[in-house]
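Known limitations

Files may contain more than one protein. Parsers should not assume a single record per file. Below, a two-record file is shown to illustrate correct handling: read the sequence, read the token line, then continue until end of file.
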Amino acid sequence: SVKEPLSIDKTDFNKLHSLGWEDKDIFVAAYLGASSFASDTFLNTFKV
């Protein structure tokens, strides 16, 4: 979802729900992935 967020649809959520994930779990996972991606991009900009 980080690289292609518009490709996510209800089917993806249904798969995660069938594995026992709740909406809050999906939200946290997406947030952490996006935050990690943003931090990595920022650090790479300054070659840190």
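...continuing to the second record:
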Amino acid sequence: MKVAIVTGAAGGMGRAITDRLLADGLQVVGVDIDGAALLTMAADREGFTPEAVDLTDPEAIADLFDRVTTRFGGVDALVNNAGTCFMS
């Protein structure tokens, strides 16, 4: 079983990428800051694991990878689709 992580999975391109990977038979860990949207997606997508994570927090990212590797044994693909903007 191949495992992919898709960031920004809850909307737009992230949702489309997630659906394509699921259709291709991958297990998909969908990561987004919008936990409610992820849970809605999980309700009708077999093979989808929702993970509400703030990707601006390095510790939260490390915890995410710990959970994913513990559950699935590793990650085969990362789609880094989430966008962040830092204003100074």
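Parsers that stop after the first record will miss the second one. For reference, the second record is described as follows. The CA atoms of residues 18 and 30 lie 7 Å apart.
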